[in-house]
Model the fold of this input.
Amino acid sequence: MFDVYITRAGKYLPNEPVSNDEMEGVLGMINDAASKARRIVLRNNGITSRYYAIDKEGNVTHNNAQLTHLAVEQLYDNNFTKKDVEVLSCGTSSPDNLFPSHASMVHGLMDNQSVELNSSSGVCCAGMNALKYGYMSIKSGNSKNAVCTGSERSSTWMLADKFNNEVINLKNLEEQPIIAFRKEFLRWMLSDGAGAFLLENKPRGDVSLKIEWMESFSYAHEHEACMYAGGDKLEDGSLRPWQDYPAEEWLKQSIFSVKQDVKLLDKYVLDLGSDSTKIALDKHGVDYRDVDHLLPHVSSNFFGSRLYDSLLARGIDIPTEKWFLNLSRVGNVGAASIYLMIEELMNSGRLKKGEKILLIVPESGRFTYSIAYLTVC
Done:
């Protein structure tokens, strides 16, 4: 078995940052009315700026594959070029197409040579699953390097015109033309961008991160879906997929919108994440006091202090001075978020050789968690 290192990290954030006051001008107003939910959601999530692959006139500037490719290009230099890539492993929850796969579409932009591909779906853990595929490929000796990515282009899912048909339908039914909170909530939470890592079997440069281990946990056997798209939830908690709806209902009910069951989120996301973290640390014999940097992917600053309390209740006391977050500056970029955090920390000048980094990535889709432990080299 071979050691695995993150030797380079790249990112791509499209266009200029969008402030809270500019969001609705870019995404548009539903039913030509200012959102009542926007200020409440923004006050709780603590995000002050984010990036959209849409310009401020509403024109689409990049698709997901292009965002990802631009992040991958940041990994190249004179010692590692696009012709050296052996494995390309890409994770996202918002691919441009149902198929071909996201990784295939990114590879199509690389203009290099035949490589091994992997596409990981899901929500926030899709990026970590892509990373684990590359990790295992190098660990096993199957390859000497892998490019792993996490990316999202959520903004086009959240444009007002995706919801206006539902508003018209509600008016025709003489009901209140107000989009349900579970659909509008994520309009003010999600943003666009991509991150990329180069994984190799030897360290390189001034800072490399050795991946000591990666663990994943799913609780779908215990809980119904919490965050979903391309379907709707029935009274029994099951999801009815978009294929089972008549085509005319797709727009009338905003079937393809991203939805969040905020009650389930609040009830389970923190405790299951803390349980998973404790199981992973105990399995590998890691003392939480050895952690120098904690990188938790939190979708909202609302969960920050509550995550600390949840970990503390399980005997894990990592002070917030050791936490590294960039949510307020770049927004919640789903599968790309952990990549963007690591890229920023790697290039911050703060890391010292021998330090330990703990990653905690939750996914509220149907409650999945990824935990990883890194050593600075």
